[in-house]
Amino acid sequence: MMLRQIVAAVALVSVVVALFMGWREALRPGRFPLQEIHMEGIVNTDVQGALELIDIDKGTNLFAIDLDSVKKNLLTLPWIRTVQVKRVFPDLLSVKLTEKVAVCMGKEENQLSLLDEYGTAIKELEPGDPLVFPVVVTSEREKNKSARIVWLINLLGRHGWVKEQISEAVGYAGNRWVLYTKKGVRLLLSERADDELELLMRLQRKYDLLNRQIRQVELRIPGRAAVRMSQGLL
Fold first, then answer.
1. pLDDT digits (tens, 9 = 90+) for 31-66
2. Which of 38, 105, 106, 48 is nearest to 77 (CA)?
3. Cα–Cα distance between 150 and 225 in angstroms, integer?
4. In this structure, is residue 26 part of a structural domain?
5. Helix count (H) and strand count (E) of the chain?
6. What is the pLDDT of residue 30?
7. CA–CA distance, 220 with 201 (Å, rounded to integer)
8. pLDDT in tens, 160-206
9. What is the domain count for the chain?
10. Which of 58, 62, 127, 218 has its CA 20 to 30 A from that of 169?
């Protein structure tokens, strides 16, 4: 029994020593030198800015790269939602990114921001950023602003035909909304907005309503629509 224990102990020590020597050999300068950083999933993120955050010199041993640090640094970029980093031997660092999706723009104190599908700000709008309509405006004192924005975006997602025509949406108390079309027509909606937009679609198909010279469509009267014509028109 004692002999078996001694043999087992010697074997274990041998394995540990071999692993240590192998690890030291792997870390030796010149072994597994980084030659390329391959990045996937970038759409709106500045590639050069991302590489500067990674900040790893060519020729660095792959084993010496702190993958968690790379991930943490990339997650500070406004567009990035998730990051996966892995070593691909013998000389590649693979970085897979998932970006946030801008679904609309928010407006506070005349500053536009891109908002994601959760109603959360991605970043303030800057030259070169995508313009994603509608611009959504809600009360600054509202506690559930994000939830209301998500509600509106989901509503417009269910009525894609009207979403394409909307440039701005303004929310009021009681889950009331005023949508502005790109032609300047105001659409007045309530919490029954799905039914109201279904009615609007029927009117659009029958009368081409939104392409006429009108100022406003009041849809908050159940089952009815009140149309206000542009000034000077009957």
1. 789 999 999 999 999 999 999 999 999 999 999 999
2. 48
3. 26
4. no
5. 6, 12
6. 53
7. 15
8. 999 999 999 999 988 899 999 999 999 999 999 999 999 999 999 99
9. 2
10. 127
Per-residue pLDDT, 5: 56
Tokens of 86: 């892995």
d(CA 167, CA 182): 5
Secondary structure (3-state) at 157:
helix
58 exposure class (CB count in 10 Å sphere: 0-12, 13-18, 19+): exposed
The answer to whether residue 37 sits within a structural domain is yes
- Domain of 93, in residue numbers: 32-99
pLDDT value of position 176: 94
pLDDT at 15: 41
* Both structure tokens of 138: 């809600």
> Does residue 119 fall inside a structural domain?
yes
Cα(28)–Cα(22) distance, integer angstroms = 10
- Cβ contacts of residue 65 below 8 Å, gap of 6+? 34, 56, 87, 93
- pTM comes to 0.81
| Token output for 175 | 């889950």
Residue with tokens 């500045």: 46
- Residue 171: which of 134, 202, 225, 209 has the closest Cα? 134
Q: What gap in Å lies between CA 43 and CA 101, rounded to an integer? A: 10
Q: Which two tokens stand for residue 100?
A: 């946030």
